Recover the amino acids of this structure.
């Protein structure tokens, strides 16, 4: 029966719930109520189908939808199955980028949001970054100093900000920061090609990153926060030619 | 052929791309490259199937996945079809909540993130709220003053914060604020039931909301930001018994 329903279009104006939606809601409720935590193995397809009185294709549909949302993943090998996972594969970032693209989110809004989030993450990094975290920042800084190609330099720049976000203890802020930093990557690259003197701009960015790295290493939270805000606003201004204030 | 592939599990460790993933990537690329903007009608199912050389079930799969992510929706009625949409139905918020639930995101992290985002949105509201926005805030405040039931009061409280987020011009911050405010709704409700004197707490919340509303109406950005931060931190402290500093 659900075969027929699944064969219709996505419109559910008829008010009926499709079989795969039943499965979706069941698994989502399990996650929200805490029964399905990170790493939990889902029941086998046939058991879920029997439990919810739907066909196995409906269960596979729901699994695919949740998999594309980065909420579950297949374990490989025999004896494997489908497990609940935390933040699989940047799926959340990808979905966020798609929403941002459709909403035509302006670079100004993205920048303001980035500043708000990165101030939180750099403060956390200045409080809790380990020596290993600082060493990773130094590696990226060394690579930036040697790289004068826009494409690869821009990737290293993104990596620097992502490392700081991950060094803080707030994983929600880190995930959002990463998604937004990825979302502004292309506009930043394009604006870089149109700048009068990108090489000078590049040297400024390295110097600012070095300052932020030092503030983190010295556990100077206020300095790290101020430098981060100034760095992002300054880069925005240089790239777009308009003030962000 | 894709029928067989779709019949396998979600594991793609074999390195092959499934037919529905081809369709997904095609539509996603259209969104990211700006060809598919808000409101764009997707080609009919059979055209997409022919173009990408996949079966129609694969196209339906991809449509379902994107629909669950709130990126597309069916237009109803004859002559309708599947359209790209911006921020459909809080799908982004729902996915975010599921990720937060799996990651076991602590209420402390959520609170810090809320503060960072709501400071941006209340500043935007203080700069650009219309008289209609203020009137809506007043309506919610009036309803809060008359409501002393935890469940419905908590919903009105959420609504107040969501209205402020929507009154600002930054829709990204608004979407994230709404998702996070929704994610903390249940923990706040549960903690409310366990408080010694919820009625007194409730009166404090109303007073703080009134102060924030007044600062917005008076276009006092700094005051609105300070009161919002103090309000969220204070409520967190009262509800959890621990300081958020």
């Amino acid at each position: 029966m659900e075969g027929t329903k699944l064969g219709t279009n996505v419109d559910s104006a008829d008010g009926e719930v499709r079989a795969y939606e039943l499965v979706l809601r069941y698994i989502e409720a399990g996650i929200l109520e805490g029964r399905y935590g990170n790493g939990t193995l889902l029941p086998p397809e046939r058991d879920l189908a029997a439990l919810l009185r739907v066909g196995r294709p409906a269960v596979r549909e729901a699994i695919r939808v949740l998999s594309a949302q980065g909420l579950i993943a297949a374990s490989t090998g025999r004896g494997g199955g489908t497990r609940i996972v935390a933040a699989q594969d940047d799926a959340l970032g990808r979905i966020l980028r798609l929403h941002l693209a459709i909403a035509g989110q302006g670079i100004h809004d993205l920048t303001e949001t980035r500043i708000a989030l990165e101030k939180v993450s750099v403060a956390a990094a200045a409080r809790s970054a380990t020596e290993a975290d600082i060493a990773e920042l130094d590696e990226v800084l060394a690579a930036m100093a040697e790289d004068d190609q826009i494409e690869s330099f821009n990737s290293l720049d993104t990596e620097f900000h992502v490392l700081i976000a991950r060094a803080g203890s707030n994983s929600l802020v880190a995930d959002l920061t990463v998604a937004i930093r990825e979302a502004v990557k292309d506009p930043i690259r394009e604006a870089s090609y149109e700048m009068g003197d990108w090489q000078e701009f590049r040297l400024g960015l390295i110097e600012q990153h070095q300052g932020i790295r030092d503030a983190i290493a010295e556990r100077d939270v206020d300095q790290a926060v101020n430098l981060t805000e100034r760095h992002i606003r300054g880069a925005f201004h240089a790239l777009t030619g308009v003030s962000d204030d």
